[in-house]
Amino acid sequence: MTIASNPPIFLPLEGLTRDQKLEVREWLDRELVEVSPQDWHFEVLAEREKQISSGEMELIPLEQFARELEADLP
């Protein structure tokens, strides 16, 4: 498996045993649990809530967003 990055990261997951793959998964789970949101995330969310409440911004259904995004792509 190759992970897209610069430079690309190659992980030989195909050659691992089932138990080795489970070890990798457990390690990733531990690493990902330790990731916590940064303070600025909450600031951005609070600002967006304020904009929605004031009518400055409105939410649209995900399906509509996907259609609009597809229409903008070449």
SSE blueprint and pairings:
Blueprint: E1 2-3, E2 9-10, H1 18-33, H2 39-54, H3 62-72
Antiparallel strand pairs: 1-2
Fold and architecture overview:
The chain folds into 2 domains: 2-33; 39-72, no CATH class. The chain is mainly α and 74 residues long. It contains 3 helices and 2 strands. The protein has a two-stranded antiparallel sheet with strand order 1-2. It is elongated and about 55 Å long. The model has no long low-confidence stretch (mean pLDDT 87). Strand 1 (2-3) and strand 2 (9-10) form a beta hairpin.
Q: What is the number of beta strands?
A: 2
Order of helices and strands: EEHHH
Low-confidence stretches: none
Spatially, the strands of the biggest sheet line up as 1-2
- Quickly give the structural class: mainly alpha
What number of domains? 2
Estimate what percentage of residues fall within beta strands.
Answer: 5-15%
* C-alpha-based Rg, rounded: 20 Å
What's the overall average pLDDT, rounded?
87
Task: Report, as a whole number of angstroms, the end-to-end distance.
Answer: 29 Å
- Helical content stands at 55-70%
Oligomer: single chain
